[in-house]
Each structure stands twice: as structure tokens, then as C-alpha cells.
Amino acid sequence: MEATAGTPDGVSRRRFLRRVGAVGGATALYGTMEALGLLASPANAEQDTFEPLREGDLNGAAPKVAILGAGTAGLTVAYELGKAGYDCHVLEARSKPGGRAMTIRRGDRLTDTDGVTQVCQFDQGQYYNAGPSRIPSHHLTIDYCRELGVAIEPMVNANAQGFYYHENTTTTDYGPLASTRVTHRQAKADVYGYICELLAQAVDQGALDELLNAQDAERLVELASSLGGLSGGRYVGNNRRGYSEPRGAGDQPGVVAGPPPSMSAVLQSQLGTRFAFEFGFDQAMMMWQPVGGMDRISAALADAVGGRRRITYEAPVTAITNTGDGVRVSYRSNGRARTLDADYCVVTIPPMVLRNLSSNFSQATKDALAVPVGANSGRMGIQFKRRFWEEDFDIYGGVTHTNLDVSGIYYPSYGYFQRTGVLVGYYSGAYTNIPVPDRATRAVEQGVKIHGEVYREEYDNSFSVAWPKEPYSLGAWVSWPGGRGAAYQHLLQPDGNVYFAGDHLSYYTAWQNGAFLSARKVVTDLHTRATTTAP
Ligand code: FAD
Ligand code: PHE
């Protein structure tokens, strides 16, 4: 625990990261790696210097481009190349656009690689985002929403009323607060309170004299006092924790919830290790979502590129062949084998799927495609008969973070006050290998630990997506073992007339922003080649 609170002094980096992962799960691990500079942070990521193409750039020529995949990257390539008059044809295996930007609504049907089919039974108007759910203000995703006229609304990514919940494990005892739901507001008041008390005392006892001059020492005490809500240098609780008796009119001043748990209990709970999530450059509020579901962006992109005139759905690609002066793509449609010939091809099929297709790519390309590893993650949407989280817990959007295998419960940031609602009951890889009917039983059991029996009583129906079992994804996103090395660099270059794009070829893996950036890079590369050399 002491190691996770600071820098990994005295602990090897790998062991330190293992400990962080054990406490906070994948999101904590990702955030910590970013903070330690082990992942490229956006500050040192490649800059987007994209110049949109214009009509006339091609001087009358209209090179034909086969784009494989109608996810964010593929549609963006078609949209941007289309602006200059490229003759774009998109082949998509699924029956609609979006790829991983998938919103699940009533009637949606998915068959996983085990052959298990689910049909969504949510009420009309209810939905959940099985893939991307949040967009930070600084991502290109917002700019495309503006350009395409996709309405956005706040996505509540942090809520003082949400809970933290740590259950003891075989290796960790979380102390008196184990198996107790603690609101974000209470955890923050207590963690900041005690840390600030320690700081103020350290100054008082001269422990920081070698580091601070007298004036800075005074300033630090002042800061600690306000940040921690201290009284006379001590943390004794305060109204940031909430009230055990509410304030009212007249002579009802209310009673502040307290006293706070001891400093030792708060440290042992490790709840403070959760706060880093909200500090993340890509997770901090404000956070946004398209009104009506994340797939509204790809729907708008698909319209903008010309709809079914340009996109063929239910057209799984089976082979890609460089022909010397162009590319031949083989695919299936309406039960028949077909081919599409083009001058160039842009492949946005995830590498875990692409490497199983037939191609005459160079051995180096095939070796590079074998490197990325598909991440194990999935999400379940649970419809409840009543929005008990709003009515009973005053939770309107936001997240409960837990070390239970559900990892997080995400309350919907839309449809407030409606009768029914769909929340995300888990965001985790722990359910991927649980049979579909048993997933809900387990997720509800976990939810009951936090919310009580109401979670079972109000359960209505559910739908779950396990990304490694989605046949056209085979993973939620990719990781590059050992970092973005030679394989990553190789795939940034075309193989013959075939270009590769997708969030996996950006420093924004697991973000639509990465798919937009990668698409724009390939559009620039392809256009530069098309306008300077004959195809
Ligand atoms: P994809 O969307 O995977 O597109 C590839 C396309 O290729 C798909 O449409 C697929 O059907 C198609 N295809 C596959 N095989 C074939 C074939 N043989 N023939 C033809 N077509 C084929 N991003 C955010 O911005 N915010 C978030 O909060 C966020 N959270 C996420 C949470 C989860 C659980 C997941 C899974 C992803 C999340 N992301 C998030 C990341 C985001 O989904 C991706 O970055 C983005 O959707 C990737 O777009 P893409 O076009 O690169 O890939
Ligand atoms: N972008 C995804 C999300 O926000 C995956 C991710 C999680 C990426 C945590 C980084 C950190 O859920």
C-alpha cells in the first residue's frame, strides 16, 4: 500500500505496477503507467497537423479506394477522402456502421464466437454503450460531432454520490472499511483530511525544514488546512462528508456525518488509490456523450459518405491481394464470393481479425500483424424496473468503483426520472468466459453487495458484450507487448498499395480519438502519394 501511494522507491517498477493493478484493476494500472511515463502521454504524442482535402486537389482524377471496415477509422477515411472526390467503397462485415462504437438497444442481436445469440429486450428508448461511452473535451471526436451535427450531452464520469467499495481478498485486508460502501465525497473528505493533517504536523514538527523556507512552510500549512478542511491543524471530519441528519428549515441545523474512521482505517481501506482515475488527462470532467448513443457518430459519418451507395454491409472480407498496380479484395455478400478491385486499399480491420485473413502481404507485415494482443474486456447493460439509484441513492450518472470483479457500475447519464433505466453492471474482462445466462446472476450478486437487495428485486433483463468473443473484433483494443516497437512502426507504412489504420496505430489506443487521428494520417499519406505518383 505504501508503495502505491508514492513513487516506486525500493520496489521494482514491474512489482509496483503489479500491486497497482491488483488494487485498482485495469483503469488504475493504465492511469499509473501513463503517470509514470511508460505510455506516451498526449503531451508527447504525435501532433495532428491534418489538412482536410478539398475538391479539386485531384485535378479531375478519381482514384478508387477500397476501405475495409465501417468503424470510426474506416468511415473517417471515406469521409475525408470523399471531400476531394476519391471513389471510395467501404466493405463492412457487420450489418451496420460503428464497429466497436456499438450501442445496444431493443431488438439488437449478437452472436458470439461460441455461437451464443443474445437479443436485447430493453424498453424502447433505453440503451447502453457496449464499447466507447465517454469523450473528453480535447478529443477530435468532439470536433467530428460538431462538424457532423451530432448533438452531445454531459457524460457524468465522476459523482460525489457514487461509491467506492473494497472487499477483502486472499492477499489484502482492507480493514474496518472492507465491504462497506463509501461515497466518493466521504472518501475524499477523509483521505484529503488525514493526508493534510500529516502534512501540517510534519511542518509543525520541523520535519520539512530542509525542504521549505519559513514562508513556504507557512503557505503549506495554509494549503493543507484548506485542502483537508482541518480544524486547528487536525482532521476531525467536516460537512464535506455529508450529513447523518439533514439540514432543514427553522431550527434544524442538521448533524454532520461522523466521526470519520481513524487515519489507520482510511489508509488501510486504500480507497484513496481510486482518486487518480479522475485526475487522468483523458478521464477528467467535463466528459461528453452523443445524445441517443455513441453509434450516432458513425451513423452520421455513414450518411455523410453516401450511405449504402458507398458502404456494403454484411460483406466480410476474406482476402487482400496487392496486384502490382492496385489491390484486389475478396469478400462474401449474399452468400456469394465477390471481388472489389481498387487503386488503393485502407484496412481498418483489427489486427486480431486481419491476421487470420488470406493476403499476399510481405512476411514483415504478417509478422507485425501477429504482435498486438487483444485486450479482454466487456460490458453488461442491465435494465432495472425502477431507477432505484436515483430514487433511493440520489445518484444521477457517475461511477461506483470497486475491486469486485464488476470493476465499475456506470449509472446512465441520460433518461433521468424515467421509470426504467439501464446501467452498466460491469466493465470487466472477468465475465468473458462465464456463460451468458450466468453473467447476470453473478453481476447482480455483486451489485447487491453494494446497493443491497433492491439490486436483485428491481432487476429486469440484461445484455452483455464480451469483446474477445465478438467475431469481428476479437478484443476490446490492443496492447503492444514491450511497447510500440518495430511492429507498430512497420504497420504505419503501406504494404504495396494497402494502408493500415485504426486506434491501434495511434498513441490513443482504446479511444475513438486514436481511430480519427490514424485515419487522418493515412488520408494524408495516401493523398500525398496519389498526387505525386501514378498509382
Ligand atoms: P473498429 O471499430 O473495430 O472498426 C473495425 C471495423 O472492421 C468494424 O466495423 C468491424 O466490424 C470491421 N471488420 C472486422 N473484420 C472484418 C472483415 N473480415 N471484413 C469486413 N469488415 C470487418 N473510445 C472512446 O473514445 N471513449 C471510450 O469511452 C471508449 N471506451 C471503450 C470501451 C470499450 C469496452 C471498448 C471495446 C472500446 C472503447 N473505446 C473508447 C475505443 C473505441 O471503441 C475505439 O477506439 C474505436 O471504436 C476504434 O475504431 P476503429 O475503426 O479503429 O476499429
Ligand atoms: N477509453 C476506454 C475508457 O475510457 C478504455 C480506457 C480505460 C482507456 C481507462 C484508458 C484508461 O473506458
Write the layout of secondary structure elements.
Blueprint: H1 2-5, H2 13-35, E1 64-68, H3 72-83, E2 87-91, E3 103-105, E4 109-111, E5 117-119, E6 127-129, E7 135-136, H4 140-148, E8 152-154, E9 163-165, E10 182-183, H5 184-204, H6 214-228, E11 243-245, E12 255-256, H7 263-269, H8 276-279, E13 287-290, H9 295-305, E14 311-312, E15 317-322, E16 327-333, E17 336-342, E18 344-347, H10 351-354, E19 358-359, H11 363-369, E20 373-374, E21 378-384, H12 388-391, E22 398-402, E23 408-411, E24 421-427, H13 436-451, H14 454-457, E25 459-466, E26 478-479, H15 486-491, E27 498-500, H16 512-532
Residues 68-74, 91-94, 99-101, 131-135, 141, 316-317, 348-350, 353, 377, 379, 467, 472-473, 476-477, 502-503, 510-515 line the site of flavin-adenine dinucleotide.
Helical element count? 16
* CATH homologous superfamily identity of the largest domain: FAD/NAD(P)-binding domain
The proportion of residues in beta strands is 15-25%
Q: Could you say what the CATH topology of the largest domain is called? A: FAD/NAD(P)-binding domain
Bound molecules: flavin-adenine dinucleotide, phenylalanine
Helix content: 25-40%
Question: How many β strands by DSSP?
Answer: 27
How much is the average pLDDT? 93
Distance between the termini: 59 Å
Radius of gyration: 26 Å
**Spatial strand sequence of the major β-sheet:** 14-2-1-18-27
Poorly predicted tracts of residues: 1-18, 28-46
Structural class by SSE content: alpha/beta
* Largest sheet properties: 5 strands, parallel
Total domain count:
4
Give the class-level CATH name of the largest domain.
Alpha Beta
Could you say what the CATH architecture of the largest domain is? Answer: 3-Layer(bba) Sandwich
